[in-house]
């Protein structure tokens, strides 16, 4: 394919299949969302109480082409109106990733479009630019948390990121999912715990706030999960204390996330703080960070609910900023393969 000159007035078709969602979207200039189709295999995973990689991949295979064509249709876009294709190249479940990547490679080849590989987390971070007219005031401090990742990132320019903290074991979303299972709640655990916690007393149990005084900006959640397990084992009637356990556990997770973010905010010189990833849907976490930002005069951004959990609009959005950051690069479909490393690409 010839290297093309980009005007940076672009419509990008995004594809995301890193986990249990099969998603496609059309986004213009990293911000204007023309369509956002999200199909999920959650019903199958509710029955197993967690994600079974093979089920997720087989489901993605069924849904990928309908999702892409639906994204084009809702955007009222023919292939001529699409300037590039973007796809999540990793990290994620290899079976699911391959479905999205292979569809993207085939379409890019067939329609002669540039193909941009996107790191899933840079997608979650870029979700905060969707439907926004104002560019962030870089550098931005980002707390991005889902079932698969839990990180503090310095977002330095359109597509330049530096990881400053990671979880040394579980991600907070994973901790929510496992805790919900222990409490006899459904899957995914985050929203289930949040719902149950509404009727509970968050001060009834005091669970640890792991790593609160540790050096650096890393996280840990596996000890907190074990503390919940020991507490459940002590209870004679789980049903009567379930909501209090859920509320106290949610308080411990959200406060732990908040305390590490607060420490990073005090250390780095930033004027904006963003939250992203599936766990950013959590109201308690949003409230804590929002009131801190209001008090300390940071600009705060969190994506709209539909852009918090996995979606393809964030992938199409990130691709726009990536193309703009590297205008000389040739985006050849042949070079796009799964990338399972954690390093940003
Ligand atoms: O970003 P995402 O859709 O997929 C991954 O990249 O992992 O995030 C899914 C995670 C799950 O662990 C889920 O329990 C969590 O986000 N989550 C929440 C909420 N909604 C989703 N956690 C806490 N509160 C919520 N409201
Ligand atoms: Zn995600």
Q: Would you mind describing this structure in some detail?
A:
There is one protein chain. The protein has ten helices and ten strands. The strands form two sheets. Strands 3-2-1-4-5 form a five-stranded mixed sheet, sandwiched between helices. Strands 8-7-6-9-10 form a five-stranded mixed sheet, sandwiched between helices. With 345 residues, the protein is an alpha/beta fold. Helix 3 links the parallel strand 4 and strand 5. The site of zinc ion (ZN) has 6 residues, from helix 4.
Layout of SSEs?
Elements: E1 11-16, E2 21-28, E3 32-40, H1 42-48, H2 53-74, E4 84-90, H3 94-111, E5 115-119, H4 120-126, E6 140-145, E7 150-157, E8 160-166, H5 172-182, H6 189-197, H7 222-234, H8 238-267, E9 272-276, H9 283-296, E10 299-301, H10 313-325
The structure holds 5'-O-[(R)-(carboxyoxy)(hydroxy)phosphoryl]adenosine and zinc ion.
Zinc ion is lined by residues 120, 124, 146, 277-278, 310.
